[in-house]
Write a structure and sequence with these properties.
The complex is a heterotrimer of chains A (102), B (93) and C (315).
Chain A: H1 3-24, H2 28-50, H3 60-89, H4 97-100
Chain B: H1 3-28, H2 32-58, H3 61-91
Helix pairs in contact in B: 1-2, 2-3
Chain C: H1 4-25, H2 29-49, H3 53-80, H4 92-112, H5 121-125, H6 136-144, H7 146-166, H8 182-203, H9 211-228, H10 234-261, H11 274-298
The chains are: A mainly alpha (102), B mainly alpha (93), C mainly alpha (315).
């Protein structure tokens, strides 16, 4: 059990925690939070698995992928939040149509 | 471990204790102002002790000066933040 | 003898999972967002433990800092419109069982994979480099996987275009009087922030750092100025903003295309002037990332209730 493996498995749990929240919760801001947690969990899994060998040298490709991923994740979150605010400003409430009757 | 490393270790542990005390204060104090009081202790003294310990361990003047700069910036940010939070809290009924 | 580092890692991983749980399931959304920022800071510690200092810096600035600011801003806006709904829980049991099972399967797969795997550490650090750049992550981002970084800039630009198409930028207001310390503090901090950004950009060649971290710091400076009400009116800086937003992608694209006329492959670098070209591209990236992050933060809906938000009180 190495550092990389510990965080990779933590990433696996966090990812499915995010999936659970994404499906079960209907408030859109909460869903955006869930997507962000899923993204962070994926990054942990990528770098953790790259580091899982005992005494491994850090793999720059995994780091570069995660760095790119962090920037893309913030872009996606910002666009999602802008869409949410537009939905609310247009009077649509903070849940999707199909979830409001449930 | 020579004397310098012992001193650095003691400073680091002292800084960590301040962080611990500040966190306990933040969790246990009843209102926003006393929590801010606890947190600013952490930012000033706790971070200062940590930075001092790390600077002693680093063995390079350039790194020590950069760490000191980090501490100064953190204090400015923390002071501004504390003032803003206190202002916001004082206006809330 | 128990490896104490591993104990720390286990504690950190458990804390990470617990804070993630509380972020997503706390009934108060504000608490959830604040916990998300704490989650980002804990992730930064995890990156340090995983020997990824570049990622740690980016996570602290972008993941915890900027995403937190965006979420808090959106939350304030939602509350002003009195539109947030309670959590509605449905299909609880089936989803819990399935996700738990999948998490278990993934963990088992992770544990049983063989430890041998290909790593880019040797190919990137071993061959002697004429460019003088020794930070392996910068090398991968800008030399070996330059196309990925170019496309990432395109994605960022698309997100900014999307956000700005939805909303116009709110008029710049002065901060409400009770937050009057923000402007002097921003004035004091701004030179230091710019210096840190320039340093991160320059140091990214040989030490952890680089264009993304510098761009994130620039974006944070912009957000700070915006909150302090120190930015000039949108009309004056619109042209500069547009140029800054596209500069990253365009400079990178131009460099990648122009080298074709020198007989090199697309996005290849000539053996001479490699470091200068890479620095030019990185400067463009830094400016672009900073302005994109600021622009994403500034895109807000047109009608705002001025009393609830400190910075939006129109002057």
């Amino acid at each position: 059990m190495t550092t990389g493996l510990v965080f990779a498995i933590a990433g696996a749990q966090l990812f499915f925690l995010g999936v659970y929240s994404l499906i079960v919760h209907t408030h859109l801001l909460r869903r955006i939070l869930a997507l962000n947690v899923m993204g962070s969990a994926t990054f942990l899994a990528i770098v953790g698995m790259a580091q899982r060998a005992q005494g491994a040298a850090p793999d720059p490709l995994a780091h570069a992928l995660v760095l790119t991923g962090i920037v893309v994740a913030v872009s996606a979150s910002a666009l999602a939040l802008a869409l949410l605010r537009q939905l609310v400003a247009a009077g649509g409430g903070t849940a999707l149509e199909e979830d409001r009757e449930a | 471990m020579n004397a310098l490393e012992w001193i650095a270790a003691i400073l680091l542990i002292a800084g960590a204790l301040f962080f611990f005390a500040g966190t306990v204060g933040m969790l246990r104090f009843p209102d926003a102002f006393s929590r801010l009081h606890a947190l600013t202790k952490v930012d000033n003294l706790g971070l200062g002790l940590l930075v001092l310990g790390l600077a002693l361990q680093s063995g390079s003047l350039a790194i020590a000066l950069k760490l000191l700069l980090i501490w100064v910036l953190a204090i400015v940010a923390a002071a501004t933040g504390a003032y803003l939070v206190a202002n916001g809290a004082s206006r809330r009924p | 003898m128990v490896n104490l580092y591993l104990v720390f890692d286990l504690l950190l991983a458990l804390t990470l999972m617990w804070v993630g749980w509380r972020t997503l399931t706390s009934p108060d959304l504000f608490r959830g967002v604040v916990l998300f920022i704490a989650f980002g800071v804990l992730m930064t510690l995890a990156w340090v433990r995983l020997e990824a200092p570049d990622v740690a810096m980016a996570e602290a600035a972008i993941g915890a800092g900027l995403t937190g600011a965006l979420l808090l801003d959106a939350l304030a806006d939602l509350r002003a419109r009195r539109s947030h709904q309670d959590i509605e829980v449905s299909r609880l049991a089936a989803v819990s069982v399935i996700t738990l099972a999948l998490a278990g399967v993934l963990s088992w797969v992770m544990l049983t994979l063989p430890a041998q795997h290909a790593s880019m550490h040797a190919p990137v650090t071993q061959p002697p480099n004429a460019s003088g750049i020794t930070n392996p992550v910068t090398l991968v981002l800008l030399v070996y996987r330059a196309y990925d970084t170019l496309l990432e800039m395109a994605v960022l630009l698309l997100a900014v275009i999307g956000a700005r198409a939805l909303h116009d930028e709110a008029p710049v207001g002065r901060a409400a009087p009770q937050y009057d310390l923000l402007a002097p503090a921003a004035r004091v901090l701004l030179p230091a922030i710019l210096l840190v950004a320039a340093y991160l950009l320059w140091a990214g060649a040989t030490r952890p750092g680089g264009a993304f971290q510098a761009g994130a710091v620039l974006g944070a400076a912009g957000v700070l100025l915006r909150l302090a009400g120190l930015l000039p009116s949108p009309a004056t800086y619109r042209r500069w903003m547009q140029m800054g937003l596209v500069s990253g992608f365009m400079v990178f694209l131009l460099v990648g295309v122009l080298v074709i006329f020198a007989g090199l492959p697309w996005l290849g670098y000539p053996a001479t002037h490699t470091k200068a070209l890479i620095l030019l591209v990185e400067t463009g990236l830094t400016l672009s990332i900073g302005m994109s992050l600021l622009s994403l933060f500034m895109s807000v809906p047109e009608q705002r209730s001025p009393s609830t938000h400190a910075r939006a009180s129109a002057s």
